[in-house]
Design a protein that fits this description.
Elements (H helix, E strand, L loop, with lengths): L5 H4 L14 E3 L5 E3 L7 H6 L14 H6 L20 H6 L3 H18 L7 H4 L7 H10 L58 H6 L23 H4 L16 H19 L9 H7 L1 H15 L1 H20 L5 H12 L8 H14 L14 H28 L13 H7 L8 H22 L5 H22 L15 H21 L4 H24 L1 H5 L1 H17 L5 H22 L6 H23 L19 H8 L10 H12 L19
Antiparallel strand pairs: 1-2
Helix pairs in contact: 10-12, 12-13, 12-14, 14-15, 14-16, 15-16, 16-18, 17-18, 18-19, 18-20, 19-20, 20-21, 21-24, 23-25, 24-25
GO biological process, one term: DNA-templated transcription
InterPro entries: prtT, XnlR_reg_dom, Zn2-C6_fun-type_DNA-bd_sf, Zn2Cys6_DnaBD
GO molecular function, one term: DNA-binding transcription factor activity, RNA polymerase II-specific
Length: 691
């Protein structure tokens, strides 16, 4: 039976268990003592962290090697006097229990925090087996591994290599869980104690090159784009594929993907039809594949939409919960946000999450090297850049709608037109459409900055409005000249961009009118832009684009309707007739698109425009002069159109457009506010609106 005390069971430190950087000092009488340790370099000592060196004394420590810091030893200050003469016997007797317990604590801390490997010298393994239980029991009852500490046979313990760091205590290492990962592994988290505070003074002086400290990857390069397996990255199983679940056939899936690229992607501008084919989507991102099918079925296969949408949202939520941050998740968030239901209030949060993932993938870091020569690799690089540009447009659009701050800074976006012209050799794409949209977003940012300055000078406002109007007209001429359009840009299919530019021009001219409300020339200019806008609405209603635009069209159309309602009071009779005509054309276009649906975006807009017309009719009848007994009008007005008669005749609308204040109020509240609890609805009678 082992009767030795814990202090007697601990052997004196041998040369095999001494740290490699600690020399053995020999006295004149043959005794040995351990000199002051010089292992810690000057930087590690200043920051009070562990300094781990290689096998050689002259080599740099692991921390300085990782961060590229100069590894220099601190100045040596020799002690005065003669070193004490001690022997091995006396040194062994002076090894107290408190020293042994301190070594046990240091050893356990080393195993927990720095993951260094514990040496077991051959002399220790040849010790009396009965003495191994004492230190093991001591550590297991008080150390951090009390619940998992068990005795491990020496033959099962990992054998040290030449680069292993020896332990401080020789015979107690067999009871500590030892990592089986070699020290030369590529795992960057082997030594967590080396991830220091970024405010470290030494690191600030030397400026280490690492993503942990800098806002860009090492050497300023974006991580390479590699094609990944959908099942390994998206946390989905093979059974989550809609084709494997027999939700639809392969032929139907091909048709929906083709319709998405032809009809929806021209508005969203996020995918490459030559890259995102059906096999590529199934191979790389099941989440994105389901999102494409769900959004396409919303307009072209309504019988499959509810099932595909539920399935897409389920696997997208699962991927986000598991922390997946690949490009397929970001593109799925954008597509499902654009094609969301009117009752969906998650647009602001989803796009914010997508922007965070974009920053995490360093998409905001500009590419400095040319595109790869391989076409597939080049398209994958452009896929990330296109997604970041599209996120910029989503960010600006939602910020302007909700009146909230932007997330992406302007200096994180390059010149979109130069970028789009860079890869024209790859064929047809939506990148020039994206370039025109980004140019418009930058104009709106400039406009917001002008009016955030709160300048009281009327001359300043006049000059700013003229400048914004001139830049908007220049943008239209640059992209929509039929004789010489930009390469890769077809003006015949870009009516959404035209409507967006006209909407911004109407905003500037509306403010120009507010500076001189009685100026009929400025009012005529506003009505001219409004008439051009209604022309684009009718074109989009005929080609199916109005239904796909959904909330974007609702915002711009309701803004136009409220503006026409406000200027109706100060308009002349001919201008009033034009206003009634424009509102009627808007109502007919949205009624035709909505059909029998009562809860689609065009149906909400149609009911709102009808409410505006009803308010105009009631107000005009109350303020109109009475007619003569014979029904004749006053002299001089016989040739003026009777807009009241036209309005009353036109207001005979079908029953499905009857106003539902509760449902419509909720729709407009969710459309114009990030907080749906604000039960806001645009007021047809001239109330304030958030645009």
């Amino acid at each position: 039976m082992n009767t030795l005390s814990p202090a007697q069971q601990v052997k004196p430190e041998s040369s095999a268990s001494r740290p490699s950087g600690t020399p053995n000092m020999t006295g004149s009488n043959g005794g040995t003592h351990q000199a002051r340790s010089k292992i810690a370099c000057e930087v590690c000592r200043a920051n009070k962290v562990r300094c781990i060196r290689g096998p050689g004394i002259e080599s740099s420590c692991a921390r300085c090697t990782r961060f590229g810091l100069p590894c220099t030893d601190p100045p040596v200050q020799k002690r005065r006097g003669r070193p004490p003469k001690t022997s091995d016997k006396s040194d062994h007797k002076s090894f107290s229990i408190s020293q042994a317990s301190g070594d046990f604590t240091n050893l356990a801390t080393l195993g927990m925090y720095s993951h260094t490997y514990i040496d077991e010298s051959p002399s220790d393994r040849s010790a009396d087996p009965g003495s191994a239980g004492g230190p093991s029991d001591t550590l297991g009852s008080s150390g951090p591994y009390a619940s998992t500490s068990t005795y491990i046979h020496p033959s099962q313990v990992w054998q040290p290599t030449a680069t292993s760091i020896p332990a401080f205590a020789p015979s107690i290492s067999t009871s500590i869980p030892i990592s089986s990962t070699p020290r030369g592994s590529n795992n960057p988290n082997l030594d967590l104690s080396e991830y220091l505070d970024p405010r470290d003074r030494a690191l600030q002086v030397n400026v280490p090159k690492a993503p942990f400290y800098n806002n860009q990857p090492a050497e300023g390069k974006r991580p390479p784009v590699v094609e990944v397996d959908a099942l390994a990255v998206s946390k989905v199983s093979e059974g989550d594929d809609p084709l494997s679940l027999l939700i639809l056939s392969t032929v139907e899936a091909h048709a929906l993907v083709h319709l998405f690229h032809d009809r929806i992607n021209t508005h969203v501008a996020v995918l490459d039809r030559n890259l995102h084919t059906l096999p590529y989507l199934r191979r790389t991102s099941t989440v994105l594949f389901c999102a494409v099918l769900a959004s396409s079925s919303k307009f072209f296969r309504k019988d499959l939409h509810s099932l595909l949408l539920s399935h897409a949202q389920t696997i997208l939520d699962r991927a986000i919960t598991c922390g997946v941050s690949d490009i397929g998740v970001v593109q799925s968030l954008m597509i499902l946000t654009y094609c969301k239901a009117p009752s969906d209030t998650s647009a602001w949060r989803k796009i914010g999450m997508a922007i965070r993932i974009g920053y995490q993938n360093y998409w905001h870091v500009p590419r400095v090297e040319p595109l790869p020569q391989d076409e597939q690799a080049a398209r994958q690089v452009l896929n990330c850049e296109r997604t970041w540009y599209c996120l910029f447009c989503f960010d600006r659009g939602l910020s302007q709608t909700f009146g909230l701050p932007n997330a992406i800074r302007l200096n994180e976006i390059g010149d979109p037109e130069v970028w789009a012209r860079e890869h024209l050799h790859l064929g047809e794409s939506v990148d020039m459409h994206l370039a025109a949209s980004i140019e418009l977003c930058k104009l709106k940012d400039h406009w917001r900055a002008i009016f955030d300055s709160n300048s009281p000078s009327v001359a300043y406002c006049e000059s700013a409005i003229e400048s914004m109007t001139a830049q908007s007209e220049s943008l239209l001429r640059r992209f929509f000249t039929k004789d010489a359009p930009p390469p890769g840009f077809n003006p015949e299919y870009e009516h959404v961009v035209v409507w967006s530019v006209l909407d911004f021009m109407l905003i500037t001219k509306r403010y120009h009118l507010e500076l001189a409300p009685q100026d009929q020339l400025r009012l005529d200019t506003c009505l001219a832009v409004a008439a051009q806008t209604v022309d684009e609405i009718e074109i989009l209603a005929n080609n199916g684009g109005l239904e796909i635009m959904q909330d974007t069209a609702s915002c711009m159309t309701s803004s136009l309707g409220v503006f026409l309602r406000k200027i109706f009071r100060r308009a002349s009779r001919s201008q009033k007739s034009l206003i009634i005509s424009l509102l009627q054309r808007i109502l007919l276009a949205h009624t035709r698109v909505s059909g029998d649906e009562n809860e689609s975006a065009p149906a909400y807009v149609a009911r709102f425009i009808r409410r505006i017309l009803g308010a105009i009719g009631s107000e005009s009848r109350a303020a109109s002069p009475p007619r003569g007994a014979d029904g004749a009008e006053a002299e001089g007005e016989a040739n003026v159109p009777d807009f009241l008669a036209e309005l009353e005749e036109f207001m005979q609308m079908p029953e499905n457009l009857v106003q539902n204040d509760t449902t419509d109020g909720q729709y407009w509240a969710m459309l114009f506010s990030a907080d749906p609890s604000n039960n806001f609805m645009p007021v047809a009678g001239g109330g304030d609106v958030p645009f």
